[in-house]
Amino acid sequence: MNCTKCDRDAVVHAAYSGAHLCEHHLRASVEKRVRRRIRQDGLIGDDATPESPETWLIGLSGGKDSVVLTSILEETFAEDPRIELVALTIHEGIEGYRDESLDAASELADGLDIHHEVVSYTDEFDLEMDDVVEKDPEGMAACAYCGVFRRDLLADYAESFGADKLLTGHNLDDEAQTALMNFFEGDVAQMAKHFDASLGPFDERTETDEFVPRAKPLRDVPEKEVALYAHLADLPVHMAECPHSTEAYRGEIQDLLLDMEERHPGTRHSIMAGYEELAKLAASAYGAKDSDLGECERCGNATTREVCRTCQLTEAVHAV
Ligand code: SF4
């Protein structure tokens, strides 16, 4: 099958748009969608100038999504002095997994000449995920602990770098799964948080000044196209799955969505279009308020509890 846009062989069929794309046009199309999302979300602040550039901190795990995002951002802003990119890799302490993806992240950052920092749960919390899984003081899935620790570190480091934006590599499949999970759980408050934390144009969010704003410029690109882009661009990517991955419910949603997408192309896009509108409405009703936030008694981080969730969990792990 030929590419819809030229005579070259197609490498992918994007059934949701009807297009067959060759290597060149797939890569161009992915880059175009990322740049359009940056524009539509108003990511580049009006105050960003060559004299006073914005710092964008990218969560770079070494997996395909964050590697593709980092590569496209570097290509987009290499000649734009208004934006400075910094990459942060979090080492959770998972044997046989994170060391390899750290190698991929370092190779990419070195090759692109991007400032790259590595931070570990060991240094920050005096624990490793392998131990947390073994001790499991709260009877929770590994990802529930890990997600709390990671969010905390990303926010802390974004602040300590003086970052203006925190960017993560969530793709269309990730976002449609999260949307559907929130629907199925009837969790309107979570929809509001999702919108305020990372969806939609910045001027429509109701977030507080306490957190560095988040963005997901890859969220219009399906996972399969991200993986293909990484392969075709010969980017250093670590493809293995985390041995502690326990998100069974997300896996069920993923299977459901892939099946729906195959039978009804465009399902993920329409879920996200509707979800964003609903999440916006939820955000205006439930939006974050500065008055809800206090300081953690232990670490001083912003929280709605007396002791933040990170301190609760690290203390529980150390007590075992
Ligand atoms: Fe952490 Fe879960 Fe991701 Fe593994 S899959 S790195 S445990 S969040």
Brief digest:
This protein is an alpha/beta fold and 320 residues long. Helices cover 50% and strands 11% of the residues.
Write the layout of secondary structure elements.
Elements (H helix, E strand, L loop, with lengths): L11 E3 L4 E3 L1 H18 L13 E6 L4 H14 L5 E9 L6 H15 L2 E6 H5 L3 H7 L6 H19 L4 E3 L4 H13 L3 H11 L15 E2 L7 H10 L15 H16 L3 H20 L7 E2 L6 E2 L5 H11 L1
Parallel strand pairs: 3-4, 3-6, 4-5, 6-7
Antiparallel strand pairs: 1-2, 8-9
The site of iron/sulfur cluster (SF4) has 9 residues, from helix 6.
Keywords: ATP-binding, Metal-binding, Nucleotide-binding, Transferase, Zinc
Protein name: N-type ATP pyrophosphatase superfamily protein
GO molecular function, one term: metal ion binding
Total DSSP E strands:
9
CATH topology tier name: Rossmann fold
What is the assembly state of the chains in this entry?
single chain
* CATH classification, class level: Alpha Beta
Helix tally equals: 12
How much of the sequence is in beta strands?
Answer: 5-15%
Give the SSE string.
Answer: EEHEHEHEHHHEHHEHHHEEH
Strand order of the largest sheet: 5-4-3-6-7
Shape: globular
Give the radius of gyration.
Answer: 20 Å
pLDDT averaged residue by residue: 93
Distance between the termini: 60 Å
Domain tRNA(Ile)-lysidine/2-thiocytidine synthase N-terminal: 56-192
Protein name: N-type ATP pyrophosphatase superfamily protein
Domain 2-thiouridine synthetase TtuA-like N-terminal LIM: 2-26
Binding site for Zn(2+) 2: 296, 299, 308, 311
